[in-house]
Design goal:
Elements: E1 5-9, E2 14-19, E3 27-28, E4 39-48, E5 53-63, E6 71-78, E7 99-104, E8 113-117, E9 127-128, E10 133-141, E11 152-154, E12 160-163, E13 167-170
Length: 171
């Protein structure tokens, strides 16, 4: 049997900074407040051309002018309906509806890398099939994050680790 080839599209899926400031609606803004949590940064569409594969870890590169210390957590959400199990979701990040899959922190030393290990990669969290699944990469900002800095992320093919030896192609 052939191994699954997992496709990851990040093209035109920059949702930085998708959040809900006090007294405003959930949307993309040109700023984020210090200490803001569950701020959407990137939307990922993931699928296979045939067979099922499993995503067990994803490593993100912190981009921008700000320090890693400004990010308390990097989170990985699966787009679901309000029961946090039924797929597909609505394609819009909402931390109170979408399923929190995993989280990680940037290690000390300004490495610009965070690895997010996906629990139960062969279950709903990481199983990838021919139907596209949408995921969101999300930041929690530190209350002492330096104002005026920028924060984003980059994902590369070498940074998607697949369960069982499958291959990932990231566009």
């Amino acid at each position: 049997r052939e191994l699954a080839i997992i496709n990851v599209s990040t093209t035109a899926f920059d949702i930085n900074a998708w959040w809900q400031p006090p007294a405003l609606g959930l949307s993309s803004y040109s700023y984020v407040n210090q200490g803001a949590q569950n701020v959407g940064v990137m939307k990922l569409n993931i699928w296979t051309d045939a067979f099922n594969g499993s995503l067990s870890k994803i490593t993100v590169n912190h981009s921008g002018t700000g320090l890693d210390l400004a990010i308390n957590k990097v989170k990985f959400y699966l787009d679901t309906q309000s029961d946090q199990v039924t797929l597909p979701g609505d394609g819009v990040f909402n931390f109170s509806i979408d399923r929190a899959v995993a989280e990680a922190t940037f290690p000390p030393g300004e490495t610009r890398l965070a690895s997010i290990n996906i629990p139960d990669p062969t279950g709903i969290n990481g199983t990838i099939g021919v139907s596209t699944k949408t995921y969101f990469l999300v930041y929690d900002y530190d209350a002492s994050a330096e104002p005026g800095q920028t924060h984003g992320l980059v994902l590369t093919a070498a940074k998607a680790v697949l369960f069982g030896g499958a291959t990932a192609f990231i566009s």
